[in-house]
Amino acid sequence: MNIVVCVKQVPETAEADLKIAAGGKGIVEEGLALQINESDNYALEEALLITEEHDGDITIMTLGHESSEEVLRMSMAKGAGTAVRVADPAFDGGDAIATATALAAALKDVEYDLVLTGCMASDDGATQVGVALAELLDIPHATYVTEVEVGSGEVTVGRELEGGLIEKLTIKLPCVLGIQTGINEPRYASIMGIARASKREIELKSAGDMGLDASSVGAAGSGTVLEELTFPPVGEGADILEGTPSEASGKLADILKEKGFV
Amino acid sequence: MDFALTQDQKMVRDMVREFAEKELEPIAAEIDESREFPTASLKKMAGLGLMGVVIPEKYGGAGLDFTTLAIICEEISRVCASHGVITAVNNSLCAYPIYHFGTEEQRRQYLPDLCSGKKFGAIGITEANAGSDPAGMETTAVDKGDHYVLNGTKAWITNGTDAGTFVIFAYTDPEQRHKGMSAFIVDKDFEGFSVGKHENLMGIRATGNCELIMDECIVPKENLLGEEGGGFKVVMHTLDVSRIDIGAQGVGISQGALDASIKYAKERVQFGKPIAEFEMIQDMIAQMSAQTDAARLLVYRAGSMKDAGAKRFTREAAIAKYFAAETVVAVARMAVQIHGGNGYSKEYAVERMYRDAKIIEIYEGTSEIQKIVIARNALR
Q1: Average pLDDT, chain B
Q2: What is the model's pTM?
Q3: Which of A19, A70, A194 to mutate to test the interface with B (most CBs of B within 10 A)?
Q4: Which fold has domain B122-230?
């Protein structure tokens, strides 16, 4: 079972004070830690678990600048055998479809049974690259996957639906799965793994290497154009829950339930 | 001159930081209160290679450098000083001297378990009457042919309650003073060996700090570490190495206290604005930042000298440890001050950091001892 895991390096924004960069089309990334996108980390762990049980090799792949090689090396430190960085200035500014176009081209030379991605990137929240990649490769896909069981020539997956429902699907291989967070417990790379990974090569693939026309990728190949990033307007202030601690916590639980947080 | 970490060092730092924030920070306050030795999290750390950082892979270690070990001690101490010193002691005060001074048989017998977390390591130098003056120790080892018999009590032993392997120092020839001191590898199961009082410390409270009692303790001949009479050399070299990591522990606690203070100063509103906007708070943040950076650079200098194969780095290790100790006590004090009343409460981590900080000025050679070492080198 050979698996390709497509990952993205994103800035850690959960605890950061975000500022919108000059021009209004991005955030100030200076001072933010860069790391593997959260659900991609679960996708990598799922690939490691599957290959530990069913053998096979893992190729870790990203489209990104040189800084994203740390994500690839950390993935190799955990057990990915091969790393590919899809790298070309022509890929800059691409939307989900343009990114998937480049990744699909990079996958042409790779033997795989399964492609895993995270179900959503935390920076743009588009949730489209995995789906678009499957369409371009003309193979089936499922996303928000919370269970994977490998069968013969197929996988059975569970998908998380609204209202706590789990949908079970059987999908023919090869296929693309968008992995949801919480499906497993991602491991940390050992320092021995880190030392070994740093000596390994990362394969670079440019648009030219893959026979891609620059007009089909990056900003030129994108149907969507980012116009502006803004913060939502500040609201009217907080609701103060009155009552004893147990009354207030009961009200809080009702609100969380009503809003669908629990 | 390049002040940048190598790619490996940076990746190790990132991994350890994430591990420490997710796995250690949530339990730091709890183990500080309970004094429970954090065996489960230490075993996870061992699985990542953090218990045998500089030990070659053939003995179960990770085979990395001393600067990397310092970075690891720093990142762990940033969230939990107890885990930080347990790591430093296991690595540089137990596994390292067994590797550096041990025979091939000793390395093969003891290092794999210390690196894998199957056993934890400790060192026994200090006694009730031998602190800054280790040559004043009273523990003796008498040669009985195929074994030695050790008698004496060691004090303030980090990891002591839960360690399985100890490097213990004793006089084989008390007449010769420090030339009559020898080092031994002692298993906790050896006849006549026992753990004494578990200390109730001000800081680093989850480190299993205790007395070790050797009462007619039988140690096989093959467990002599280094040469008979070579113990003082083992102590001095081992402390040079471990002072780098204790300095790193000081840097880590300082960084943790600084990070917490920056976050708090931006959130805490008084007189209608965040206190970070007041210049007296900024003065403290500036001092804390500058001192922490300076201490870190001194620690990395000592580590990189050792990595470059320097024979002597006693002076640089002493300067790093001394400066990091002064820094962490000052930085933790300012962190509590920035937090005001909240900083004096166990609800906030800086209260623990303030208590943890003080030990850096005391163990592995007090600041006074470091200054003696530094001045002797300057005036030579």
Answers
A1: 97
A2: 0.92
A3: A194
A4: Butyryl-CoA Dehydrogenase, subunit A; domain 2 (2.40.110)
